[in-house]
Amino acid sequence: MIAETVCSAxxxxxxxxxxxxxxxxxxxxxxxxxxxxxxxIGLVMTGAVQWMVHTAFSPVSWAGFGVLGCAWLLFMTTRxxxxxxxxxxxxxKAAKTAARGAAVAPAxxxxxxxxxxxxxxxxxxxxxxxxxxxxxxxxxxxxKKHGI
Length: 148
Hints:
This protein is mainly α. It contains 6 helices and no strands.
C-alpha cells in the first residue's frame, strides 16, 4: 500500500517537473521527463510493484534466490574444472596413454637445425667480447670530459 502511494507521488512530481520544462519551451526534455515519470505508476497498475513487495519480504523467495545462486555457482565451477582438466576421466586417461606411446626416441634429442654451425650474427650488432669493454671505455672518456 505504501509502495503504491510512493510511486504515485513520484509520478505526480515527475509530471509536474515535465510541465514546468515544457513551459520553458524545452519540449524534448519535457517529453523525456514525462516518460520517466510514468514508469512508476505503470508498474503499480500492472501489479509489478505488488509482486516485488511480496518477493522482498518473503523468506521462501529469498531461499529460492539462494538455491538459484548455489546452482549457478556449481554450474560455473564445473565448467571451469572441465575446461582446465581437459574433459572426463576417460579422455584424460586416453590422452595420457597416447602421450606415452608417442615418446621421442633418445637419439632424436639433439636439435636438427644448425648442427655445429655458429649462430647467425646480425649485421650492425656487436658480439659480447672485447667490444663491450671498448664501449665502457668510450663512456668513461665522455664522463671524464664533462667532469663527472
